[in-house]
Amino acid sequence: MRRMTASGEWRCAAASVPPGSTATFRLECGGRALAGFVVNDAGRYRAYVNRCPHVGTPLDLWPNEFLTEDGGAFVCSTHGALFEPDTGFCTAGPCAGDRLAPLPLTLDGDALVVRCARRPTP
Ligand code: FES
């Protein structure tokens, strides 16, 4: 169950993103297409804009490949920056100290719902 609405909302079945996995999506926010991804970090869901704060490329050169082998961090495929899955904080690499842009995520029954951020994302 994945869909995008004109209002800038993306939904998917929470069960389709098991612990230690990610899923990508696109939203329409303020007339702009925005690529994002969700992660299930040991049962805690987070959503981020798929844009590295270093030079703005997507993190996943290979589609939906965000996590390090041990699943403990996101890794940017361009220059190897590492990010905490639960905060998006960059812990190592050329953008250390910066962070991924979070997106509002809620649970609606068995569905994950991601919406556009209130503030425009950079
Ligand atoms: S673009 Fe991500 S570390 Fe350089």
From the alpha-carbon coordinates, what is the Rg to the nearest angstrom? Answer: 13 Å
The CATH homologous superfamily is named Rieske [2Fe-2S] iron-sulphur domain
CATH structural architecture: 3-layer Sandwich
How much strand?
35-45%
Spans where pLDDT lies below 50 across 5 or more residues: none
Q: Structural class, please?
A: mainly beta
Which fold does the CATH topology refer to? Rieske Iron-sulfur Protein
**Ligand set:** FE2/S2 (inorganic) cluster
Mean pLDDT: 92
- Percentage of residues in helical conformation: under 10%
- Top-tier CATH class: Mainly Beta
From N to C, what is the helix and strand string? EEEEEEEEEEE
Total individual domains:
1
Our count of helices gives 0
How would a textbook summarize the main sheet?
4 strands, antiparallel
Please give the alpha-carbon distance between the first and last residues.
29 Å
Taken from the alpha-carbon principal axes, the silhouette is: globular
Instruction: Tell how many strands the DSSP assignment holds.
Output: 11
Major sheet: arrangement of strands: 1-2-11-10
Question: Mind explaining what this structure looks like?
Answer:
The chain has a single domain, classed as Rieske Iron-sulfur Protein (3-layer Sandwich), CATH 2.102.10. It is globular. It is 0% helix and 41% strand. The protein is built from no helices and eleven strands. It is mainly β and 122 residues long. The structure holds FE2/S2 (inorganic) cluster. The site of FE2/S2 (inorganic) cluster has 11 residues, from loops.
Write the layout of secondary structure elements.
Layout (H helix, E strand, L loop, with lengths): L2 E3 L3 E5 L8 E8 L2 E10 L2 E6 L24 E2 L6 E2 L6 E3 L9 E2 L1 E4 L2 E5 L7
Antiparallel strand pairs: 1-2, 2-11, 3-4, 4-5, 5-9, 6-7, 7-8, 10-11
The chain binds FE2/S2 (inorganic) cluster (FES).
